[in-house]
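Lay summary

Proteins are chains of building blocks that fold into shapes. Our project writes down both the chain and a compact code for its shape. Here are two examples, one after the other.
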Amino acid sequence: MANHPGITEAQQRALRSWLKLLGSGNAIRKSLTAKMQAAHGVSLSRFDVLANLYRAADEGVRLSELSKQLMVSNGNVTQVMAPLLKEGLVDRKPCPNDARAAVARLTNKGRKTFEAMAAEHALWVEDLFAPLTADEHQALHSLLEKLSTSDLD
């Protein structure tokens, strides 16, 4: 990166790290998206919704909480959920203690479908990270954890 007036060396290092992290994350997401679409006809966004619902308790997750977990808007969750509801992978019911809210949960079909997808997804992720040694995995994890616990707001 060329020296830019007003940008310090520390800022340049941070920008280079940010661009490398962003590029790597985008490349990994693009690869996983293509594999998920080819194997299951599902977007990675839909897979992410299924994964969050899979980890949820049997009573499900409020849609507002799901949007927070996925870091997307409520409208985005609604749009991604529509085909999952139509295919019978997810059901949506009014929240028992708040009539204004809705709760989503996996159906039995959704649970089985997700488990098949998740097994393949784990293999694909393993392949993408295969160039790293065990120590490098730990170092990467530690560095990313350090970033995620810093003041990002």
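And here is the second example, written the same way.
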Amino acid sequence: MITDKIEKIGQGTIIHHGDLNKRVYLMKLDKRDIPGIIGEVNRIARSNRYTKIICKVPQSAVPQFIADGFLTEAQIPLFYEGRETAFFMSKFLSSDRLLELETEQLQFFGGMLEKQNGRKNGEADPDNKYNVKRLTPADSEDIVAIYRDVFESYPFPIFDPNYIKETMESHVEYFGVEHKGKLLALASAEMDKKGLNAEMTDFATPRKNRGKKLALLLLDEMEKKMKKQGLKTLYTMARLNSVGMNKTFLRKGYVYSGTALKNTNIAGKIESLNIYYKHI
């Protein structure tokens, strides 16, 4: 399976790019690389004929990206160390990547936000038969098996047990829901401990295990663990077309902050992602 690569450029900026997503994603900006890094991501995108660039950058860098033609797709306040806002700045290099969202999708999402407005945070139904735990390298094969079952494609190499183990050892904590020793669903928290934030991501529940609010159980436990480690901001990039995941984050009090259009190849096609955040 084709996977995109993560690499360091400049003095410390980290990007993710390749033919699977046809885009450059600037995941972490080293401020020492401003302003030259803007020209570099443009060069990488154009030389590889990618159709989108998306950059997650601190507010202080935003004017220079705007001057280069980038648009704001979302923003998360108090993102960096609980102080500075993060902006998701994008440039579209093909009109096909900037098509309007389908009317049905907009109507659905708008209606869901309206219904959710003013409601109390949701909690998963307690059920003693399920056990939520932090996963270890010994679980890597089971983790990969679930990801292979749920996703036809994914932007990061989560189908590789070695990748799972490597990320566990560096900055990602994986959590699973078990019943009678069998892994039913899982998710991960990708932490930036210096920035005091974490992305709640890689939620996967095989079809046979759905309808049991397992994602809510996972999110409950993940939030507790992230707060215990002193993190301040949690966020996610949820597939626009995944009704269940959008509802899960809204029920838990996450705030919608924008949509990254035609952003990520997941489940076999490039999809738009809704960005949510929550301060803990």
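What can we say about the second shape? The mean pLDDT is 91.
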